[in-house]
Amino acid sequence: MIFDPSLINSFLQFLTGFSIVFLVVLWISLILWTFRDIRRRSRDPLLRILAVILSTILFIPGALVYVLLRPGQTLEEEYQRNLEEETLLQTLEETPLCPGCSRKIKNDWLVCPTCRTRLKKKCISCSKILDLNWEICPYCETAATGYHRTNISIDDLVSQNIDKVDYKTNTEE
Questions:
Q1: Three-class HEC string of the chain
Q2: How many CB atoms lie within 10 A of CB 109?
Q3: How far is CA 54 from the centre of its chain?
């Protein structure tokens, strides 16, 4: 078997050329990957430029350093996390509190079980729960009597025995 030195030389040139092309493609792909990744993770233009320069100059070690130092979450993941936090905060803020004792109450309670503060009232016609400040039932259009003083003059108030008037329910004791 005779080895032709030109065949070995050609094979080594091909292998060298292939290795150089492979390394150039790898270098360019690392730069592009770094650029795309930092764009998804940060809005800071200076940080974007520094990340691309780091991977451009230092090649594979630069890409490894970038992977270690890059922000942990993408902008979309951070946005989703912020939405979840805002939803939780909004849920906590929407929980109604008793005006008397500031404890959490449920929307369908008529009276606070802790301090006995009147929270809602029932419609006299359909028995649905109404807010205290409603003057008419929105379900059956019945006037919600007994909780608001309307059409009363100052003279009528003065002529009545004020000590015996319960202003909350508009009934005399």
A1: CCCCHHHHHHHHHHHHHHHHHHHHHHHHHHHHHHHHHHHHHCCCHHHHHHHHHHHHHHHHHHHHHHHHHCCCCCHHHHHHHHHHHHHHHHHHHHCCECCCCCCECCCCCCECCCCCCECEEECCCCCCEEECCCCECCCCCCECCCCCCCCCCHHHHHHCCHHHEECCCCEEC
A2: 13
A3: 35
Residue-wise pLDDT for 82-105, tens only, equals 999 999 888 777 778 888 898 988
What is the token pair recorded at 96? 């109604």
Structure pTM?
Answer: 0.52
**Paired tokens of 82:** 């912020």
